[in-house]
Amino acid sequence: MKKEMFLFFIIIIMVTITIARPLTVVIYSAPPVMYIDNGKVKGIFPEIFDYIAKKEGIDYKYIYLNFADGLEYLKNDLADIMFGVAYTKERAKYFEYSREPLLFDWGQIFSRENVTLHGFMDLKNKSVAVLKKDVYYEGPQGLKKIDSDLNLNIKFKEYNSYEEVFKSLEDGEVDYALASRIFGLNTRKKYDIKETQLILNTVDIYMIYSNKSLKPIIDRLDLRLKELKRNDESYYYKIINKYLYKKQIPTWILPVLLLIGIITFILIIFIYLMRRNIEKKTKELLERNKELEKNKKKVEKLYNTLKHNMEELQNTKGKLEESQALLESFIEHSIDGILFVNKNFDVILVNNVFKERTRTDFHKNITKGSNLRKIFEGELLFLLELEKAYNEERSFVIEKPIKRRDGSIYWVSNSYYPIYKGGEKYGVALISRDITKLKENEILLEKLAHYDSLTGLYNRRAGMEILKELALLSKRENKPLVIGFVDVDNLKTINDVYGHSKGDEAIKNIANILKSSVRHSDVVARYGGDEFFMGLYNCTIEDAERIRDTINKKLEHLNKYSYIHYSISLGFARYIPNSDIDEILLKADQNMYSLKNMKKKLKDKS
Asked: The PAC domain covers which part of the protein (predicted)?
């Protein structure tokens, strides 16, 4: 008894000493995740940690090391916590991991601008710059393993930071570089290099520590981080958006705007000078006309002056014709389709791009003098847009998909402008730009923004938006709404025993069962990690429990054919009109944990 009490007091003293002294937190250079700027620690991880530590009243200090030295410091108890470390079995022998990941990332191969890389086989006998002890380099699915499996004979060159890795690629010391996706996409332009299509495994990024007495502090940090992730408006997402989702102006915009500005400025100066010249000459002609009436003797002199002026006008006309030719050449060689029509929709001018699109998309030829009403007969929307520009005398832009005769679809941005002649309406100008690639990128970005990459379900943000819409519909239609919260049982055990790839497979299998067990009018989304949530519209608690039974039966059926035991805990809460969705979700979460604890007690008794 005395021995046990002695050990208890020793543990209490160790925890007290640990908490009393400032925590030593290791950071290394990996912008924008963490870095030093003019002696100040900045980046996603430090700024989120600063916020949480302040809320929790935790005293700490940062030390700046390279990645490999940081791991050694932690292993030898020279530091307490280190940011930005992915899980591997080898590291788990020496370090403890936080439960809540700070972020997720993946590895990517980068090359110089003039190099094209098609696949991993192109790396054979090449040199690659890597970060010492990087998970994308030495991890179970890292490039070193791929090199061994494919017998690529890659010559690896190790560096202490990603900046050194990119610098060696820029200087030509190596053929390629391996770095994290977040660092690469935010830093590559500084080094005049580009990303390739070769990517490596996706990993969650954690805090690690070696002193187990720090677990109470880490649990507090985990809890705060988890709460921040649940709120889309939290400080966590403000920092993420600050560093990762800055809107960037396309690189081609500034040169184009500069060119347009120069041309516009030249035209304005030219028109201004021409106008002054014409006004001056007109005034001279009027004065000379008056002189003719007063004195016929001045006719010869006036004739010579008029002759001189006519020569100047001829020169001016030649310059105008030259300017017109340049403008027509610019229109003809433009990458956009350009079309001018009069008020009857007869073609005044059409360039080759517009002709080719009409011939390819509609199997019709368009030339100067053609009538658009005949060529585009049946294309009522297009003709109405032209009429709108002419009748309303205003410019506007319309983006829309165009279906070709072969069934394929591409996107255009049509800019309509009314044109005038002699101060009166004359017709319409159309500039049509192919924006298919831009639209495809927008669709891809929208998909990445709304769907979870692992399961294909809605991500947390998109799921919460749909849940709020269901809540409004429930209130408006007076229909019941049930919210469910799901937690995968024993996922950590699956990861530890079978590896994280099997853990990911378990999450995907369970996600498929959840999705197949509800109606199309319901929503299932991944909350994060091993947690999901669902919204069941026009559904009672009794109906929801039957859905839970269906899910459990499907899991039991899956377990018959799998050496991994699949199990979930699912709690429900009924939505009450005008209540906060987060509160209902929290209640469902609490009900889920009550069921999980009940199952654990029953299992312990058995």
From this structure: 396-447
Distance CA 409, CA 407 (A): 7
- pLDDT for res 49: 94
The CATH number of 451-605 is 3.30.70.270
State whether residue 344 is helix, strand or coil.
coil
Query: Helix (H, G, I), strand (E, B), or coil: what is residue 417?
Result: strand
Look up residue 39 and give its amino acid: G
Question: CATH fold of 255-435, please?
Answer: Beta-Lactamase (3.30.450)
In this prediction, residue 299 carries a pLDDT of 61
Token pair for 365:
């030829």
d(CA 373, CA 378): 9
Report the pLDDT value the prediction gives residue 214, as an integer from 0 to 100. Answer: 95
- CA dist 302 and 306 (Å) reads 6
- Tell me the backbone φ, ψ of residue 116, rounded to 5 degrees: -115, 130
Report residue 20 CA to chain centroid gap: 42
Which pLDDT value is given to residue 444?
67
Distance CA 14, CA 21 (A): 11
CATH code 3.30.450.20 region(s) in the chain: 255-435
pLDDT digits (tens, 9 = 90+) for 168-184: 999 999 999 999 999 88
C-alpha dihedral, 543 to 545 to 549 to 552, nearest 10°: 130
**Confidence (pLDDT) at 14:** 44
Task: Name, in order, each residue with C-beta under 8 angstroms of 385's C-beta and a sequence gap of 6 or more.
Answer: 398, 414, 416
- All CATH 3.30.70.270 domain ranges of the chain, comma separated, are 451-605
Q: Are 98 and 206 in contact (CB under 8 A)?
A: yes
pLDDT at 436: 84
For the chain, list residues with pLDDT below 50. Answer: 1-2, 6-19, 247-250
- Report yes or no: 410 and 440 within 8 Å, Cβ to Cβ: no
pLDDT for the residue numbered 254: 61
What is the structure's pLDDT at 445? Answer: 65
Cis peptide before 418 (omega within 30 of 0): no
The neighbour count for residue 412, using CB atoms within 10 Å, is 18
